[in-house]
Amino acid sequence: MIRSLLVANRAEIARRIARTCRDLGIATVAVHSDADADAPHAREADSAVRLPGDAPADTYLRGDLLVQAALATGADAVHPGYGFLSEHADFARAVRGAGLVWVGPPPEAMEAMASKTRAKEIMRKAGVPLLDPLDPAEVTVGDLPVLVKAAAGGGGRGMRVVRELAALPAELDSARAEAASAFGDGEIFVEPYMEGARHVEVQVLADTHGTVWTLGTRDCSLQRRHQKVIEEAPAPGLDEELRRTLAESAANAARAIGYEGAGTVEFLVSPSGRAYFLEMNTRLQVEHPVTEEIHGLDLVALQLRIAEGERLDAEPPAPRGHAIEARLYAEDPARDWRPQTGILHRLEIPGLRVDSGPDGGDAIGVHYDPMLAKVIAVAPTRAEAVRRLAHGLERARIHGPVTNRELLVRALRHPEFEAGRMDTGFLERHLPELTAPSDDDEAAPLAALAAALADAARRPATATVAGRLGGWRNVPSQSQLRSYRAEPGGIEHEVRYRLTRDGMLAEGFSDVRLPAAEPGWAAEPGRGAEPGRDAEPGRDAEPARVVLVVAGVRRTFEVTAYGDRRYVDTPRGGHVFTALPRFPDPTARTEPGSLLAPMPGTVVRVAEVAVGDRVEAGQPLLWLEAMKMEHRVTAPAAGVLTALHAAPGRQVEVGALLAVVAAGE
């Protein structure tokens, strides 16, 4: 029996595993980097061990330190979660060699699937359908498009879609470099890129007595940069013959390598309905909750019981209903998916299952994946589950860095997605419309007006409502003026309003007024932070409630302030603004042609350019790594490179000067 478990991971998955352990009466040991010293997964565990440093290579990827932590705390077993060392056979051997229980598959099974090229050879012998690889040196125009992939690792790292033959050599070199940096293995391979394909996977679970379960299908086609964003179970629109083929192929794959524990066999399904083996993940998947919800299972609990030697029943429980999961990321989809950092002041998504990493008040740093939470809805039908998830995300209160929340809501409500017609190119194809400014011309200006009124209500409590709003006189008076910049997007809103004997007049709004019956429209304005002073995260800022009557319809806005940021929450969605100063600093200028770091991160590569070289607009100059993603930084315009302030390994903050490109010859 396992009595104490070390979770060799962090954030959401560490909290997820610990939650099941508490239900089973198993003590938990957390590990944490210095950046995670006060993270929820470390706070909630029964004990926690520091891993000195911040970078994953110094902390969560140090198998020797993890084994030492388990032994020092008297743990019986180690659960690797997903990512980091979860698929490293040597780590599994080290855990077992220390006399600890490894909650995962045998190291030999992990090794068999670790290299995608070797995995495909094994699957071919097991009769699992495959896409034939291509020799990079023999790729022709007729083979295009092709996909360049890293043989080791995953998560979209080292993957490139190539549509032009002339671009193939450079993309091969780039993929090798990224794979070597991310996984310590630069091996890559090339295979046909299947346009319009779906990403469908099968959850497998195998005990140590020969029983293998296949737990239906999951569709994971909505992806950005080859990383999943929305997943659902069961995969919609598959006929029974295809479902049977997928289940049989997944079971054969597991048996071919003597698999034990939880794993996932992934397939590409062509538009014609043919399935091809993609890879096998020898660990728990990020999207495992949708399978749990429709089968009524706890996959982590089953992993632990299998590790203790228990038998599975002959057949798994039958699925019921439909479940769908969205990954909420701290990133800006409209700006090339740039990861975002800062304080997450508030995260509230009522009515849905939320598996989160950080809580309100926690900091989102630069060292790790930008995923904040997984949000899961379940219902009797797919249409109901999709509707519940979109509605819940729309009404969520998310105060902090920019997120992909709006993109998720729009994607879930897109006609193609609602009809189940999606593929791996969906987000790339529809990104402009999914990130475009809202076509509701009134929503953002109304939210800005609510923010202005809430700011007025935060004036000293001794003032009357009229006094807070600027007062009114028998003669016309100047309007009150406040300016806000919408985040993201940067659209500026000027709000002008004044109080008259007939009520509030707001410029630009022909039929907006304060409720006559509620002179105390913001009777509880809250203790929002003063401009220029940050609120204590998650505690100091209390929302002001603003009620407006718009064309006869009563609308309620909840406005929360943190420093100069204003978060306006409504039943129709949230808005974020930065309150702008009345007199901008005239010294805030940047030299023309300056290339500034778009995010905090580490310079991993610099192009073969030197000061004095001529560069073209869009030409890659360097690559930054931030939050487990590699970002290409390009020349802002054509011209001459007059300064270069970047070298591999350099840590940079957002806004740091990286290079200067002078226009002209």
Automatic annotation (TrEMBL):
<dbReference type="Pfam" id="PF00289">
    <property type="entry name" value="Biotin_carb_N"/>
</dbReference>
<dbReference type="InterPro" id="IPR011054">
    <property type="entry name" value="Rudment_hybrid_motif"/>
</dbReference>
<keyword id="KW-0547">Nucleotide-binding</keyword>
<dbReference type="InterPro" id="IPR016185">
    <property type="entry name" value="PreATP-grasp_dom_sf"/>
</dbReference>
<dbReference type="Pfam" id="PF02785">
    <property type="entry name" value="Biotin_carb_C"/>
</dbReference>
<dbReference type="InterPro" id="IPR050856">
    <property type="entry name" value="Biotin_carboxylase_complex"/>
</dbReference>
<dbReference type="InterPro" id="IPR000089">
    <property type="entry name" value="Biotin_lipoyl"/>
</dbReference>
<dbReference type="InterPro" id="IPR011053">
    <property type="entry name" value="Single_hybrid_motif"/>
</dbReference>
<keyword id="KW-0067">ATP-binding</keyword>
<dbReference type="InterPro" id="IPR005479">
    <property type="entry name" value="CPAse_ATP-bd"/>
</dbReference>
<protein>
    <submittedName>
        <fullName>ATP-grasp domain-containing protein</fullName>
    </submittedName>
</protein>
<feature type="compositionally biased region" description="Basic and acidic residues">
    <location>
        <begin position="530"/>
        <end position="541"/>
    </location>
</feature>
<dbReference type="Pfam" id="PF21139">
    <property type="entry name" value="BT_MCC_alpha"/>
</dbReference>
<keyword id="KW-0092">Biotin</keyword>
<dbReference type="InterPro" id="IPR011764">
    <property type="entry name" value="Biotin_carboxylation_dom"/>
</dbReference>
<dbReference type="InterPro" id="IPR001882">
    <property type="entry name" value="Biotin_BS"/>
</dbReference>
<dbReference type="InterPro" id="IPR048429">
    <property type="entry name" value="MCC_alpha_BT"/>
</dbReference>
<feature type="domain" description="ATP-grasp">
    <location>
        <begin position="120"/>
        <end position="308"/>
    </location>
</feature>
<dbReference type="InterPro" id="IPR005481">
    <property type="entry name" value="BC-like_N"/>
</dbReference>
<dbReference type="InterPro" id="IPR011761">
    <property type="entry name" value="ATP-grasp"/>
</dbReference>
<feature type="compositionally biased region" description="Low complexity">
    <location>
        <begin position="518"/>
        <end position="528"/>
    </location>
</feature>
<feature type="domain" description="Biotin carboxylation">
    <location>
        <begin position="1"/>
        <end position="432"/>
    </location>
</feature>
<feature type="region of interest" description="Disordered">
    <location>
        <begin position="518"/>
        <end position="541"/>
    </location>
</feature>
<keyword id="KW-0436">Ligase</keyword>
<dbReference type="Pfam" id="PF00364">
    <property type="entry name" value="Biotin_lipoyl"/>
</dbReference>
<dbReference type="Pfam" id="PF02786">
    <property type="entry name" value="CPSase_L_D2"/>
</dbReference>
<feature type="domain" description="Lipoyl-binding">
    <location>
        <begin position="586"/>
        <end position="662"/>
    </location>
</feature>
<dbReference type="InterPro" id="IPR005482">
    <property type="entry name" value="Biotin_COase_C"/>
</dbReference>
